[in-house]
Write a structure and sequence with these properties.
By secondary structure, the chain is mostly helical. It is built from 5 helices and no strands. The radius of gyration is 16 Å and the shape is elongated. The relative contact order is 0.17.
């Protein structure tokens, strides 16, 4: 089960990054040009939020079955253990909250504003800053 979850979580991360980048670019484009929210933007926002939430659920389950996220007295002293046990989960949770808030703000206005794009960019920064690159690409 652990290997399946790890592979799913790692593979789904590509879709999460793609959805996050597409969200930021398209929402930013619509906001800069002061375009009205349309069906495409509504679906893109929903899809991005859904992808981020699925990634979060997979990550939470993986957190509890992973041998890397074990808390010991040395967890905070070792950078790798700290990344897996605390930094990665907290930043990903923050990213999901930001995308959810961006989706909510987007649904409340007829004209796309810049705030959801900024929230999407901050969410992407949270994700990219705490991906365990050595494990993910290695």
């Amino acid at each position: 089960m652990y290997n399946f979850l790890q592979n799913f979580h790692s593979g789904w991360a590509y879709l999460t990054l793609l959805a996050g980048v597409l969200f930021f670019v398209m929402i930013g484009y619509y906001a800069i040009n002061k375009k009205a929210r349309n069906n495409f933007i509504t679906k893109l926002s929903f899809f991005t939020t859904l992808v981020f939430h699925i990634q979060l659920i997979a990550g939470v389950v993986l957190y509890f079955v992973s041998p890397y996220a074990q808390w010991t007295e040395n967890t905070m002293k070792d950078p790798i253990n700290r990344l897996y046990a605390m930094e990665h989960p907290l930043m990903m949770f923050a990213a999901v909250i930001l995308i959810t808030v961006a989706n909510s703000k987007l649904k409340k206005s007829e004209v796309v504003k810049i705030t959801p794009a900024i929230l999407g960019l901050i969410a992407l920064a949270c994700v990219v800053s705490r991906i365990p690159w050595e494990a993910w690409l290695g």
